[in-house]
Amino acid sequence: MEIRQLEHFLVVAEERHFTRAARRLHLVQSAVSASIRALERDLEIDLFRRTTQRVELTDAGALLVPQARRILADVDAARELLADVGHGLRGSLTIGTMQALSAGPLDVAQVLGDFCSEHPLVEIRLRQAGSGSLELSEELRQGRLDLAILSLPERAPAGVALEPLGSEQMAFICAPQHPLATRLTVRLGDVADEPFIDHPTGWGTRASVDQAFAAARHQRTVAFEVGDTLGMLSLVRHRLGVAILPPSLVRETDGVHVVPLSGRDLCWEVSLATATNRPPSAAARAFVERCRAVLGAPLQDAPE
Question: What are 56's strand-pairing partners?
């Protein structure tokens, strides 16, 4: 078994297609196919089921995926450790973030800028969640991300450790013409009968609001599910519903009114997520240190 074979295996497993995998690896398809066949011979088991339409993992192949990711992560960590001696921090770092780059007290763009200035030899890849924080946590657990900045108000999923970065009180968002827009504060019971505009299930803000209404024994109707905050605010501005969001995500130019919530603690909690099933790379540890420096308070160490 060779390292390059495991690299080829993971790309084919992700793409489910030899041609696309070869394109990602900058190899000809025959070379990728030969590499996978050699790996299967070495292991004496089929890793893929091949049809004319698709390539699927066998049960053995599915078992190998997390192991292969751990092996490659260890290899990368060893390379980075040796490269760091006398040459500065090297390697790559893939970070997942929510759409909001201002995550509570942490300005992600500022942290990335400072980190890149300190460690110019580290290649940074930034991925924003298309389906919310639950997607980010799964990408992290599967080894597709090194770190994630996300919002999971419920307990951490298996294989993921959460360290708090900060929190922000959420507020009621409505059009300026709304009858509650002039109130100093509103309670959840005051707005439970309103049509809501919210993120889809899996987003941290959605989970926080759902939990708060359930705890208060109020039911609400989500009339529109929108995958971006600007879209939500546009619908609110046109009086198609109301929302509950962190005030920091709302700008003066969005044309909506922000009313504080009272009577119940409803927070947007932001965390730095790390995987518990593999050691963090040197670059990941350095990024955690940069977050600590910005926040001025220590986070717990990432799992070794």
Answer: 49
* 3-class DSSP string for 1-70: CCHHHHHHHHHHHHHCCHHHHHHHHCCCHHHHHHHHHHHHHHHCCCCEEECCCCEEECHHHHHHHHHHHH
What is the three-state SS of 69-127? Answer: HHHHHHHHHHHHHHHHCCCCCCEEEEEEECCCCEECCEEHHHHHHHHHHHCCCEEEEEE
Beta pairing partners, 174: 257
Beta bridge partners of residue 163, listed in sequence order = 272
Residue 301 pLDDT grade (very low, low, confident, very high; cuts 50, 70, 90): very low
> Residue 107's pLDDT is what?
82
State in Å, rounded, how far the first CA of the chain is from the last one.
26
Quick count: other Cβ atoms within 10 Å of Cβ 187?
15
Amino acid occupying residue 212:
A
Q: Which helix (H) or strand (E) holds 147?
A: strand 147-150
297 pLDDT higher than 60: no
Torsion of Cα atoms, 59 then 57 then 125 then 70, to 10°? 30
DSSP string over 200-241: PTTSHHHHHHHHHHHHTT---EEEEE-SSHHHHHHHHHTTS-
Mean pLDDT of 168-183: 95
pLDDT tens digits for range 190-206: 999 999 999 999 898 99
Mean pLDDT of 250-259: 90
Count of C-beta atoms within a 10 Å radius of residue 301: 11
Question: Residue 298: its pLDDT value, please?
Answer: 47
Contact 48, 55 (CB under 8 A): yes
Alpha carbon distance 51, 100 (integer Å): 41
